[in-house]
Design goal:
64% helix; 16 helices; Hypothetical protein af1432; globular; 293 residues; mainly alpha
């Protein structure tokens, strides 16, 4: 039996396995098509309707969200044209991104990973990242949502393609003082943030987005977008701190106060004031995810 004795060797073996996973989920085609339309200076509703209509399940869920109490409409939304009017292009891009990625992975819940908990955490981190980015003056809100939504995708990859290792990581966390990143590195030689960045590269996402996913636990190590990495790091922490969409494997997540200076937060008192403004937002957003499942 092969014995991997060093962290470097474990990392090399994991990287080789990732490179040879030919069934690594491709970026959803519908997401690519919809994003191209939505990223245009003047998005065309008809083109968007044509793309979304290719997936009847997506149509049903978009209409369900548009008819949800979140928007409080008196009139029932029965067409995609009206849904786009109600939701707006920005909200629609967020919904399409979330639904298409969730559909692509389709991991099954087991005792080691609750899929509903995972996707709720991902969606809320994305939504909160978008909100914080707007509040601190970060211009590309859509990128903030996607980076936040995808920040833990490496966990989904490990659970699906390295399941026996996922079990070992889970047991290490249960039986030792190791946190999630430490347990992953001990077993695989790399952590979920690095694996998530690998997936983003595989999907040909911009290098800056890959960098943010890789460094969402250590934002000041970001080489191309430390502000966005700090936003994602804070959003991730807030779900834990406020216990809304918190994710069990991340229970020992610590906030990097040095990184918070990137957003002009210099003390714990300033942080508490900042945090207090987001609890209601998270509660409202947690209602929205019910319509994505």
């Amino acid at each position: 039996m092969e014995i991997i004795t060093t962290q470097s060797q474990r990392r090399t073996k994991t990287e080789m396995a990732l490179a040879n996973i030919f069934k690594l989920p491709p970026i959803p085609k519908l997401l690519l098509e919809a994003s191209k339309i939505l990223d245009a200076k003047t998005p065309k509703s008809k083109e968007l309707v044509d793309v979304i209509s290719k997936d009847q399940s997506l149509v049903t869920k978009v209409l369900s969200i548009a008819n949800s109490p979140l928007f409080g409409l008196q009139r029932k939304v029965t067409s995609m044209d009206f849904a786009i009017l109600v939701l707006g292009f920005s909200e629609l891009k967020k919904i399409i991104s979330a639904l298409s990625v969730i559909e692509t992975f389709k991991n099954k819940t087991d005792k080691y990973l609750d899929q509903k908990e995972f996707w709720l955490h991902s969606f809320l981190t994305g939504s909160l990242s978008e909100k914080i980015a707007e509040d601190v003056g970060f211009s590309v809100k859509g990128e903030a949502f996607l980076a936040g939504f995808l920040h833990d995708m490496g966990i989904a990859v490990i659970h699906r393609f390295f399941h026996s290792h996922f079990v070992t990581i889970y047991e290490l966390q249960q039986n030792t003082e190791l946190n999630l990143l430490e347990a992953e590195t001990e077993v695989l030689g790399m952590n979920h943030a690095e694996i998530g960045s690998f997936l983003a590269e595989n999907w040909n996402f911009p290098p800056s987005l890959c960098d943010v996913i890789k460094n969402h636990h250590n934002p000041n190590e970001s080489t191309s977008n430390f502000l966005l990495a700090s936003v994602i790091h804070l959003a991730d922490f807030l779900t834990m701190h406020l216990k809304i969409g918190n994710f069990e494997p991340d229970k020992n997540l610590a906030l990097d106060m040095e990184a918070m200076k990137n957003m002009r937060i210099h003390s714990e008192a300033e942080m508490e004031t900042f945090i207090s403004g987001y609890e209601e937002f998270l509660i409202n957003q947690s209602e929205a995810i019910r319509y994505l499942n």
